[in-house]
Each structure stands twice: as C-alpha cells, then as structure tokens.
Task: inverse folding
C-alpha cells in the first residue's frame, strides 16, 4: 500500500503533516522554472508605441498605464519566491540566497519567463522557482488585461534542479546528440576526426562524443553522422552511426551538414524533442560552453545557437535544433533552393526564431579546416 509522506495516523484519524527534514544535510540547491504567456496582436500593437516612448532601443519592455510590465512581473515573482512557504501547504521556509528572472518577448507574441532560485537548505527550491514563474506570468496578465481578455498562460514547468537527492534536467531525455563527421577533410589534407588536439590522446571524434555525454545526453542517443561509403571505416567501430538519407526526394540535391541534420530527425527520442549538433571541426569547443548551450535551450524557438558577434551570424554546427525546425526547413529548400544551414539559420534568426547564445570566448566557435589553422590550435 502506498505511504503518504504528508499524512499520518493519529488515533482513528488521518491528519496532514509537514515532512521532517531535520536529519537531512544542508546542500546548495538550485532550480530553474519557466512560464509562457501569449499576448495577442491587439496588445502588442497597442503597447508598441508606448514602449518605444519609454524604453531604450536595447531594452525589451512593455509599458501600460500601470507601469513597466516586465519589471513589475520580476518584482512580483521575486516576492512570490520569498513567500512561497505561505502559499503552498507544507513547503518549508528556506533562506532564498539568490533569485533571478529573465523575460523575453518573442516576435510571435509569446513572453518566455524564466525564474532561477538558489538556497543552501535541507530541502529543494523547485517550488519557489515554479511559484516565482507562475506569479510573474499572472502579473503580466494583470498588467495587460485592459487591452484584451485573450491572454493565455500556456505553460509552467520545471526546467532543472540540482543539489538534492535527484538532479533533473527536463530536456536531456528529449534530445539526441549528433556529431557531424561526414566531411571529406580535403582542405585539411588528413582526416579531421582522427586529429588529437591540445596534447590529448583522444581523437577529435571521441572528444565530441564525450562532450555530448558529459552534459547528460544518453549514450544510446548519441549518433555519428557520416556518408554511406564511410560506414565500414575502423574509426566508426562500436559507434552509433547515422547515414545520410538518400531516399527522400525532397533532399535529392541536399548534401553536407544539412543532410546529416535532416537525416537525424528520424532518430529523435520523442516527437517533440530536438537534436544537439556538434561538428568535429570545432576543436576549441569545451564542456563549459556545451553546458551553456544546454542551459539556454529554448524549445519554443526553431533553434538555439551560438552567435558570432564578429561575423554577425548564428553558428549552425554547434546548435540545438528543436522539432519546430524540421517543420519549416523543407519549405526553405523547396521554395528558395536554400541548402546552406548557416543561411537558413540566419533567415530564421532575422525572424526572431533563434535563441542566441554568446560563447565565453569568440574562438570557441572557430572552425578549423586547414593545416595552418590546426597548428594554431596546438
């Protein structure tokens, strides 16, 4: 029979109780939650001019007669995080050491709210993060309701938590990892998958696989993308191979990295999942930055990609493509004849459909394709 942690038997009655956490150890707990609010076009149009009058060009904010919408939501959400124990029965009062919000307004009218809470405590902090994200969403509703009653709070979910009995990251089981290794290495003059950089014994192929594994992608969901004629090469022994799909008539003239990415869709763990792509010619890439990409992943966008500020483009060879991407990419190929993954990603970015991530250093996303570039890495 199931035992209930918040109920106990006293005499002939079952009464509620708070769980005793006195025997637990204090650890640093971090949780991040997300809520999404849809604002109809009527609100965006009504508030656009007011927002331009009040805010700098670099600031994403909406203004109503009540005041700045997102700033007010952050204040309300922070208050909710601190008072969570008064709102949710049996939640413990814990010291909130950090509370941060990030609010983005997408071009399609979706406001994405993320709340991160941190505490050194004996119990988790995910309810605080969820409550903060929820109250921030309700505050946005309240600030904008005079303009429309068609506002929808579409989602409240935990994104990740750490420091407790079980860590959790919502997207890792939904993602597959794809190492792009199908190139011919003609400019390099040697097989790029077999180069060992930074004095390591590991080949670049193994480094890429290990990077994807280190951020929590299940090994059975990590694939090597290659051409069919490469499949029997010794370097791929024991690896999960994903061969280019040459049977799809839509992709008849598609080749290179884009074909590998498109061919991977059939291997996604779930239909609403995504693919984290890593090319073998990015030897500066490290765990810190792959972790950063994972943390910033936004599945409401077509893709989440590192942004090259110098060249002003999104890097398609180290990115996470959500399931939404595969619903539109064929249109780009058929309508525009566009088969370049960078151009497709740039077009989506211009429409506000790509989440930009800034790497810790610009060189992290540098492609290395020639012997002279290789020597600089060493």
Result:
């Amino acid at each position: 029979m199931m035992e209930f942690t918040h109920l106990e038997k006293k005499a002939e009655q079952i009464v509620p109780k708070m769980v005793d956490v006195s025997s637990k150890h204090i650890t640093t707990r971090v949780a991040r939650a997300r809520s999404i609010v849809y604002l109809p076009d009527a609100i965006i149009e009504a508030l656009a001019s007011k927002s331009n009058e009040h805010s700098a060009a670099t600031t994403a904010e909406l203004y109503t007669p009540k005041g700045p919408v997102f700033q007010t939501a952050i204040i309300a959400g922070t208050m909710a995080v601190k008072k969570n124990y008064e709102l949710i029965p049996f939640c413990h009062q814990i010291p909130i050491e950090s509370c941060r919000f990030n609010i983005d307004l997408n071009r399609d009218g979706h406001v994405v709210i993320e709340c991160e809470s941190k505490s050194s405590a004996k119990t988790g902090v995910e309810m605080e993060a969820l409550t903060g994200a929820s109250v921030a969403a309700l505050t946005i509703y309240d600030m904008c309701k005079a303009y429309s009653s068609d506002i929808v709070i579409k989602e409240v979910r935990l994104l990740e938590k750490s420091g407790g009995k079980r860590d959790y990251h919502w997207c890792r089981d939904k993602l597959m990892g794809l190492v792009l290794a199908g190139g011919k290495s003609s400019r390099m003059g040697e097989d790029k998958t077999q180069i060992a950089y930074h004095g390591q014994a590991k080949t670049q192929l193994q480094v890429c696989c290990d990077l994807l594994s280190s951020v929590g992608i299940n090994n059975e969901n990590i694939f090597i993308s290659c051409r069919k004629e490469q499949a029997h090469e010794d370097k791929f022994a024991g690896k999960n191979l994903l061969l280019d799909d040459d049977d799809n008539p839509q992709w008849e003239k598609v080749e290179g990295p884009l074909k590998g990415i498109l061919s991977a869709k059939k291997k996604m763990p779930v239909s609403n999942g995504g693919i984290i792509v890593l090319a073998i010619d990015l030897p500066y890439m490290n765990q810190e930055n792959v972790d950063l990409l994972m943390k910033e992943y936004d599945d409401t966008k077509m893709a989440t990609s590192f942004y090259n500020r110098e060249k002003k483009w999104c890097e398609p060879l180290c990115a996470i493509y959500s399931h939404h991407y595969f619903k539109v990419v064929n249109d780009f190929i058929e309508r525009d004849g566009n088969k370049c993954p960078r151009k497709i990603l740039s077009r989506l970015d211009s429409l506000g459909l790509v989440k930009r991530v800034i790497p810790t250093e610009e060189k992290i996303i540098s492609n290395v394709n020639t012997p002279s570039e290789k020597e600089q890495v060493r």
The chain has ten helices and 16 strands. Residues 172-377 form a domain with the Spore Coat Polysaccharide Biosynthesis Protein SpsA; Chain A fold (CATH 3.90.550.10).
